[in-house]
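During the reporting period the student researcher (J.K.) took over the structure-prediction task from the postdoctoral fellow and processed the backlog of single-chain submissions. One of the processed entries is reproduced below for the supervisory committee.
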Amino acid sequence: MKESMSQNLEPRETERTKIQPPTDASIVASNAIKYTAYIMLLFGFLYFLIAYLAPML
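J.K. obtained the following structure tokens:
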């Protein structure tokens, strides 16, 4: 029992991987998708206001 416990406590070498920061192209693409979604939501909301709520006034 002691042998198995001592094996778990020994320091192990971990493989380190370099984390690369996102490139400019991926940031631009991500922002383009995000702001396109915002614009589509805005136009959808405006369409709702004009098509459904404006006739009720």
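The committee noted the following: The mean pLDDT is 84.
J.K. will present the remaining backlog at the next meeting.
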